[in-house]
Design the sequence.
């Protein structure tokens, strides 16, 4: 069995697919299809997140190689993405993360609840008629508005930065960065540079008291202009792309079995465990790429320096040694050590914000529209080896 993370069963029935793969060939396997080692167990994936000295997250080298083959214009993309902390290892990663380390703590994020509630209410107020595509009008709209407000970005610019993010995503979520189409990626990176360059300068002269102010004026920060722009772009990109996917997956799981919606209405304290379960089975990331920095033994295999590896979050989150009945969606699952937000130094910076956004958005939607239902079959999720994509979620609100 050669692992193919894009196999239909791997996407739609991960518990059975990965259980069979582990039983046949172990927790660490070479995939000819992906030309990489794939880590399949919860224990191996969790450990790998912590071991940047042997499994490097740094993709600056691969981006630079792409740039050399693409020409001078592509350098703007490399300059942007190499300043994203998730593509770097400590100590660079640590330095890039420092200005926002305390901004997304549970206490700090909790203060944003009223702002998030106001945005969600405004979006729902704008629903005209009974039929709506929640994928576009809800899951895609709310996270973008929230992260724009937090960063002090004008809501009117939402359409622009969402378009740029879509183009950048084609490279970020590609197994082979060189396969992305040059022109839109270069254009998007250039727009991000100019956009945040202006905002960073604005914060230096006329601070707005937003998250962007905290980043630019952080007293212990020695980030360069390029690093500041990279950090802002990452927050904007990650703050709405990943939460959009989480909300889309959550909506699909709820609408497919309406009794789940009713349970949440009757048990509002259950949103905390429900969101963790939605992340376990439908979180945005399916794998995280790594480069083997030094030859080492793992899972009884020898991983050679220079080879590629994929930390398979989808497999880890369906590991029967950790999760009872992993193929079942259980909104009360507790504990739920899902790895959808990563682990260790690469734990998602915005995890607390994503949890709060999802809770407020879903709770408000279900409470306001008690007769909401799917308006026909929900389309199957599209997925690459790296992650899940967006899809339409057509509903009748039951007004």
Sequence:
């Amino acid at each position: 069995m050669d692992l193919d993370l894009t196999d239909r069963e791997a996407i739609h029935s991960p518990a059975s697919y990965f259980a069979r793969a582990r039983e046949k060939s172990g927790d660490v396997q070479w995939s000819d299809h992906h030309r990489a080692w794939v880590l399949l167990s919860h224990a191996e994936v969790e450990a790998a997140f912590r071991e940047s000295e042997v499994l490097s997250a740094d993709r600056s080298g691969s981006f630079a190689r792409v740039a050399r083959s693409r020409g001078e214009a592509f350098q703007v993309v490399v300059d942007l993405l190499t300043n994203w902390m998730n593509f770097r290892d400590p100590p660079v990663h640590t330095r890039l993360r420092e200005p926002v380390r305390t901004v997304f703590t549970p206490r700090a994020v909790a203060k944003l609840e009223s702002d998030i509630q106001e945005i969600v209410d405004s979006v729902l107020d704008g629903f005209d008629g009974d039929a709506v595509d929640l994928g576009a009008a809800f899951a895609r709209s709310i996270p973008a508005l929230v992260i724009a407000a937090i960063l002090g970005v004008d809501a009117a610019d939402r359409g622009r930065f969402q378009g740029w993010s879509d183009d950048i995503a084609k490279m970020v979520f590609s197994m082979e960065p060189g396969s992305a189409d040059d022109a839109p990626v270069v254009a998007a990176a250039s727009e991000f540079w100019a956009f945040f360059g202006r905002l960073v300068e604005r914060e230096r002269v006329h601070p707005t008291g937003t998250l962007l102010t905290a980043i630019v004026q952080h007293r212990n920060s020695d980030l360069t202009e390029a690093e500041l722009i990279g950090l802002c772009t990452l927050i904007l990109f990650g703050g709405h792309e990943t939460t959009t996917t989480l909300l889309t997956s959550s909506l699909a799981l709820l609408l497919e079995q309406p009794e789940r919606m009713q349970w949440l209405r009757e048990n509002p304290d259950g949103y905390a465990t429900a969101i963790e379960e939605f992340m376990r089975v439908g979180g945005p990331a399916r794998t995280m790429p790594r480069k083997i920095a030094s030859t080492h033994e793992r899972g009884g295999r020898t991983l050679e320096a220079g080879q590629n590896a994929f930390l398979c979050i989808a497999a880890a989150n369906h590991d029967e040694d950790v999760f009872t009945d992993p193929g079942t969606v259980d909104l009360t699952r507790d504990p739920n050590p899902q790895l959808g937000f990563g682990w260790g130094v690469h734990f998602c910076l915005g995890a607390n914000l994503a949890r709060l956004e999802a809770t407020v958005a879903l709770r408000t939607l279900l409470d306001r529209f008690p007769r909401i239902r799917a308006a026909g079959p929900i389309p199957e999720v599209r997925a690459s080896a790296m992650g899940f994509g967006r899809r339409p979620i057509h509903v009748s609100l039951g007004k």
